[in-house]
Amino acid sequence: MEKIQFTDPDTNEVVEFAVEEQTQLNGIRYLLVSDGNENGDSEAYILKEIKTQDEEVFYEMVDDDTEFAALAKIFAELADEETQLLY
């Protein structure tokens, strides 16, 4: 499973996430990531890929409610039968 590192902009804490799914919407790449806990429930987040003018890539949490709801539906459809997304 692919892992990415995410730096919390508020605390500068670096967190490693497991990439569960990915999709593209309106030309923007989104990742469904989790804390990687394979023993039951885990927290999941939707990250939005941002590219700078220098082609550097970083991710930010999706916090717009409309954008989040649309992406949550997409990721719920992509999830396997054993995975249940609650949003």
Automatic annotation (TrEMBL):
Record Pfam families: DUF1292
Write down what this protein is called.
DUF1292 domain-containing protein
